[in-house]
Amino acid sequence: MLQKVHNFSQEIENGPVKTGPFLYPSLTKVHNHTCWLEIDKCRFFSNAYWLKKLVGLNRNIAVVLKSNAYGHGLLEAGSLCEASPFINYMAVFLLSDAIRLRNKGIRKPIVVLGGYDLSLVEGINHNIDLVVYDWHIAEDISTLARSLKKKVNVQIKVDTGLVRLGFLPEETIAVIDYLVQNPFISVTGMYTHFAESDAQDTSFTFEQISRMQWVCEKVKERKITIPFIHLANTAATLRFPEARGTMVRCGGALYGSYKDERFYEHAKTILPGFSLKTCLSLKSRIMMIREVSVGIPIGYARTFKTTKPMRLAIVGVGYYDGYDRRLSNTGKMVIHNHVVPIIGRVGMNMTTVDITDIPQIKKGDEVLVIGDHDGIRLKDVARQMGVIEYEVMPPLNPSLPRIII
Question: Whole-prediction pTM value?
Answer without folding.
Answer: 0.90
